[in-house]
TrEMBL record:
GO biological process: cytochrome complex assembly
All copies of domain ABC transporter, residue ranges: 1-29
UniProt key word Ribonucleoprotein: no
Identification of the protein by name: ABC transporter domain-containing protein
One MF annotation (Gene Ontology) recorded for this entry: ATP binding
Keyword check for ATP-binding: yes
InterPro entries: ABC_transporter-like_ATP-bd, ABC_transptr_haem_export_CcmA, P-loop_NTPase
Assigned keywords, A-Z: ATP-binding, Cytochrome c-type biogenesis, Membrane, Nucleotide-binding, Translocase, Transport
SUPFAM superfamilies, per database record: P-loop containing nucleoside triphosphate hydrolases
């Protein structure tokens, strides 16, 4: 039987070899040790640099450098009905 961390690493490895352009991840670094989080961050960064997209829901550190996450297009979008774009997500 695999541990939770082993299952998580296996799932991330499977994701990396599928070649999908969009990754949808829910709490991808839960149950991962520091080395596995660093590997995850490198994989996501490489995916983004290869013009991939990633939608990640988490409440913990992903090990990603903030510079690799380009949120500018979303922050500049405004909806006159709600004001600032961030408010749409709250």
């Amino acid at each position: 039987t695999l541990s939770a961390g082993q299952k998580r690493r296996l799932g991330l490895a499977r994701l990396m070899v599928t070649g999908r352009s969009i990754w949808v991840l829910d709490e991808p670094t839960v149950s991962l040790d520091t080395d596995a989080v660093a590997l995850f961050a490198a994989a996501v960064t490489a995916h983004l640099n290869a013009n991939g997209s990633a939608l990640i829901a988490t409440h913990i550190d992903l090990g990603l450098d903030a510079g690799s996450l380009d949120l500018a297009p979303y922050r500049s979008a405004t909806d006159l009905r709600i004001g600032a774009s961030d408010e749409a997500f709250l």
